[in-house]
Amino acid sequence: MTATATASTIKAYLQDLQQRIVAALEGIDGKPFLTDSWERPEGGGGTSRIIEEGNVFERGGVGFSHVMGRNLPPSAAANRPEIAGREWEAMGVSLVLHPRNPYAPTVHMNVRFFVAKADGQEPVWWFGGGMDLTPYYGFEEDAVHFHRSCRDTLAPFGDELHPRFKTWCDEYFYLKHRKEARGVGGIFFDDFNALPLDDSFALMRSVGDGFIGAYLPILERRKDMPYGERERDFQAYRRGRYVEFNLVFDRGTLFGLQSGGRTESILMSMPPVVKWRYNWQPQDGSPEARLYTDFLPHKEWI
Question: What pathway does this protein act in (predicted)?
């Protein structure tokens, strides 16, 4: 069967997804997102939708990009060294949201499409994406809801995908130098073309479309909880782990920087207030300690 999905239909979906997510987030925050459209000298461009000092979000960004280049960066060809150096085209939506309230978790979501081309050879295409939750104070019902939502986005495409993508997420969003997870995980997949193009695109759409239902109920539950300086201080400390992962391990960040991407858009994921401390440890039995004992270790939530 001939595939009906094309680069233009995938791009149209991604642009619509960005708009739908921003509209939902603006409905919760009450402050409009700024719009910053940009072009990339080597080819392509994008639109970054940004909020800073909002009513709910201390900082957040929902970015769409459609970029291309002549030489595929090493980070994008890590699993397929034979395609390194090919011409390439990439498009996607990526978001990170940092609520002000320490009881409301940070969240990340990304969906993307890649094509690597070479004269006289069939194009190599793949999809990637996922979403993961990074709480500062853990709530079992939030983790269960998020993981159940992730499972439901993948269910139409085979029961084996959720366990595989859940484990992939656990292993990917892991700070090796700290020997701890970044958060409670979710799902992650990359280099995915195991299904035909149309079915792979449908899987990516399901993940993208599932984000609002996975995250907004959690945010609604936590955004107005009372908190004090202790909670804000711990939130800033744990945000340091987010920065460490993104700058040391994240393939998306590395790809963006290696490909000459727009630095402001690549680093829109950085939290606005962060703290580091030397060899700090939470007090035994405290809510802060529970994050380490009950939430960061990998586990089956559903």
Answer: Porphyrin-containing compound metabolism; protoporphyrin-IX biosynthesis; protoporphyrinogen-IX from coproporphyrinogen-III (O2 route): step 1/1
